[in-house]
Design a protein that fits this description.
The complex is a heterodimer. By secondary structure, chain A is of the alpha+beta class. Chain A is built from eleven helices and 21 strands. In chain A, about 30% of the residues are buried. Classes of the chains: A alpha+beta, B mainly alpha. The interface between A and B is large, with 57 and 56 residues. The complex binds protoporphyrin IX containing FE.
Chain lengths: ~475, ~300
């Protein structure tokens, strides 16, 4: 979009002049500001961010050393580590480029916006025919009517196209100036400021917010220290499509706040993947689910009589609900579970090595003739545990794992600022894309009975549409009677 | 009973016919000019190119209608199956929707500026999008129910806005190719070349720029909607997932373009090449990332 020289001198250029790569830090603050506000810098930073982000997507981020060594080999991995390519977005240089872009766009705003602001309020511009002749769109028209009349008609014509028009008389010449669509240029600057707003919101969020993952078992209540309230997981379940695929997973959560209503329930909500619960600025997201590792819902126990090796009973037990079997003189209760059995011989503690159900073991409390024993029975190795004092042998043939709900817990005080910035950037960009700044100048000179008009105009963007509008305007001007 | 798949197939053939006609229109325009130059018979461009051009526009419009019907049908099928209806919920549907927006955008352009030769390029891209969709394996083409993470009303707006921005960039890319052809022909002084029927270079350049200034804010809006969705679904608005990062990369690339246009004399050939490069990046963002890089956004 090559502006004409005359336009340049008038509008103190919306375009850049200096050559590529001439970064002049010679110490004068003015030069620094020029460099920081330059379009060249902006374009370089856009490209730089694009390249750095490309590196960040092509090389997987934040994996273990083993992963990279397997994928790329040792020497390359060393390079990646030195350069920070395994964690691009957290590197100082990445942040620096982003920061520089913000400084750049704010400086740009600082340098250029005042000019636009002035031209929003400025209502009079008188120009010479030479200036008009140098504009991209221009024409010379003769009309057989007197200047004042022509000027009035022009104000109507431009006004009907949505222009703001002003006319000035100097001696016998009349100058008409018309403008519209300045909001398009204001929009660009709204976008510039909002980029900084978004980054500011992001910073606030990362300094004052947090993001955690928590596991919740149905029926349990958890203390949420960051918000100082209790969260109860009432229920967790899944919905399925007809073909068996998972449609959604859902948790019903309740909040009770000890500081409010003596800890009575404040709020109950069923959350699903796209529908979180919010309390006191803390958000609970349904993020995953799984089989729990130290609790189950049900266990199926097979009881054999040792003497005859006959199955004498087959019972289904609920977690921690004792069951009496009078025929056999037994009371059974499921009191413990370990998904991946581990035993610490020093503390005599049973635990789960991993959360995977690799070697599940169920602890059964067996009360027989008023004596209770609590052996651990291995689901995958039936019959290896013998209870010496008992008439019976016990095997766990099946169990119903209890599901936990995986909750993402997050607080982000910067989020409102981020969304405000986003709204501004969208509005700003939309304005600048759909509204174009157009200006028209007319110089009216009397010549005998009639007048000679020099009409010219330019547009900030959207040449084709402006060319059309301009010729339409000319036609109407020629028709002035 | 028409199924959506049948209608999508029909769309494909209609777009193919439209492409052939637009190319025919450009070619006939050339012959017309040649005859005028040589001819005792005063045969002008209008003799053949007008009816061919009209037919091309008509077939394109019918194609768009069928494409619309196909999307509506798919929306209905989805609704019956899963209770949500966004007809852009997998790669296939998304491609068909991009084709739809490219063609719709093109028809608007033709309606507004009356330049048919552009159809030879832009409708071709719409056709390629539709064709690439139909090359996808069958299992990608059916309306599988959505996984829980995608099952949300955000999908209606986030995906459609983003895909529409891709269509605008596709339009700019097509105009870029057209610009380069015309520019080459002019440089070589090929008067009677096919490109004689093209609009002048400045118009092509301007329209390409215009397409990008429409795509650019749309993509920003689409990315922001994605961030809002992510914040709603996963508790963080930005996680540098490959897909979201690529759409940011694409946005940055066009951001550089928009600002370069503000500098003096940046346009024409350079801008055309850049627009084609940008389109390749969009294609990678749309296809490459889904199939090559892993992440939350892999539809399938
Ligand atoms: C940080 C991200 C940035 C965003 C989102 C952004 C966005 C925009 C948008 C949407 C426009 C309007 C484009 C058009 O009219 O087609 C624009 C124009 C412009 N941008 Fe940026 N920009 C950014 C950074 C910068 C920077 C760092 C500079 C520094 C020089 C800059 C300089 C300009 C200038 C001079 C204009 C023309 C303004 C006018 O019309 O008066 N931008 N920008």
């Amino acid at each position: 979009m090559a502006d004409s020289p005359a336009e340049e001198s008038l509008s103190k250029k919306s375009a850049e002049q200096s050559g590529w790569g001439r970064f002049d830090w010679s110490g004068l603050p003015g030069d620094v500001v020029d460099t920081l506000s330059s379009l060249k810098l902006a374009i370089s930073l856009f490209i730089a961010l694009a390249i750095l982000s490309t590196i960040g997507t092509v090389i997987q981020q934040g994996e273990s050393s083993d992963f990279y060594i397997k994928e790329y080999g040792e020497p390359l991995f060393r390079w990646f580590q030195t350069l920070g390519f395994t964690d691009v977005y957290n590197q100082v240089w990445f942040r620096a480029v982003l920061g520089l872009l913000i400084v750049n766009s704010l400086t740009c705003f600082y340098k250029r916006f005042p000019g636009i602001w002035r031209s929003m309020r400025q209502s009079q511009i008188t120009v010479t025919p030479t200036f008009i002749g140098a504009l991209k769109q221009h024409a010379k028209i003769s009309i057989g009517r007197e200047g004042g009349h022509v000027a009035e008609k022009m104000i109507d014509i431009f006004g009907s196209k949505g222009y703001r028009v002003s006319a000035t008389r100097i001696d016998k010449d009349i100058s008409v100036f018309a403008t519209k669509g300045i909001m398009g240029r204001v929009g660009a600057h709204v976008a510039h400021v909002s980029a900084a707003v978004i980054v500011l919101g992001g910073l606030i969020g990362s300094v004052t917010g947090f993001r955690d993952f928590g596991v919740g078992l149905p029926g349990q209540t958890y203390w949420i220290p960051q918000g100082e309230f209790n969260l109860t997981v009432d229920k967790f379940w899944m919905d399925y499509y007809e073909n068996g695929a998972i449609k959604s997973y859902n948790s019903t959560l309740s909040v009770s706040d000890p500081l409010v209503d003596n800890g009575k329930k404040q709020l109950t909500k069923t959350i699903t993947v796209n529908d979180p619960l919010v309390y006191n600025g803390i958000w609970f997201y349904q993020s995953s689910y799984g089989d729990h590792w130290d609790q189950i819902d049900k266990a199926k126990v097979l009881i054999k009589e040792k003497s005859s090796d006959q199955v004498v009973s087959d019972v289904m037990l609920d977690w921690k609900v004792p069951m009496e079997i009078p025929d056999l003189g037994l009371i059974l209760n499921v009191t413990g579970f370990a998904a991946d059995f581990a035993f610490d011989s020093e503390t005599k503690q049973v635990s789960s090595k991993t959360s995977e159900h690799n070697n599940p073991a169920v602890q059964l409390a067996i009360t027989e003739e008023n004596k209770t024993v609590t052996p651990w029975l291995f689901v995958d190795f039936p019959g290896i545990i013998d209870i010496p004092d008992s008439k019976y042998a016990f095997e766990i043939t099946a169990y119903g794992p209890s599901k936990y709900t995986g909750l993402q817990i997050a607080k982000n005080p910067g989020i409102t600022i981020v969304w405000t910035g986003c709204l501004m950037i969208v509005v700003g960009m939309a304005l600048s894309s759909f509204i174009f700044h157009r200006r028209l100048w007319v110089n009216i000179q009397s010549e005998g009975e009639g007048t000679v008009l020099h009409v010219g105009g330019n547009t900030h963007k959207g040449q084709i549409d402006f060319t059309r509008e301009f010729s339409e305007l000319l036609e109407r001007i020629q028709g002035i009677a | 009973m028409f199924t959506a798949l049948f209608l999508f197939d029909l769309t494909f053939w209609l777009y193919l016919a439209a492409v052939v006609l637009y190319i025919g229109y450009v070619a006939v325009g050339r012959t017309g000019l040649q005859l005028v130059a040589e001819g005792p018979r005063q045969l002008s461009t209008s003799d053949w190119s007008v009816p061919v051009g009209q037919l091309a526009t008509m077939i394109t419009a019918v194609g768009l209608f069928v494409n619309t019907a196909a999307l509506a049908m798919r929306a209905h099928e989805r609704y019956l199956l899963t209770g949500t209806f966004a007809p852009w919920s997998n790669q296939y549907e998304a491609m068909a929707f991009v084709a739809w927006s490219i063609i719709a955008g093109y028809l608007l352009l033709e309606f507004k500026y009356g330049i048919k030769a552009i159809g030879a390029f832009v409708v071709s891209i719409g056709f390629i999008a539709m064709g690439a969709a139909s090359l996808l394996p069958y299992r990608y083409q059916t309306a599988e129910p959505l996984v829980p993470a995608l099952n949300s009303y955000w999908i209606y707006i986030h995906v459609s806005v983003t895909l529409t921005s891709y269509a605008a960039f596709a339009m700019a890319g097509g105009l870029g190719v057209m610009y380069l052809l015309k520019e080459r022909a002019e440089r070589k002084g090929l008067q009677s070349s096919v490109t004689a029927a093209f609009p002048n270079l400045e118009t092509i350049d301007e329209l390409g720029y215009k397409s990008i200034t429409i795509g650019f804010p749309l993509l920003a809006f689409g990315i922001i909607l994605g961030a809002m969705w992510a914040n709603y679904a996963w508790g963080g608005y930005w996680s540098w997932d490959p897909k979201e990062t690529w759409s940011l990369i694409v946005w940055l690339i066009y951001g550089a373009y928009i600002h370069a246009r503000m500098t003096r004399g940046w346009g024409g050939r350079r801008a055309a090449i850049y627009a084609i490069f940008g389109l390749l990046m969009v294609v990678f963002c749309f296809w490459g990332v889904n199939f090559l890089l892993s992440g939350l956004h892999a539809y399938a």
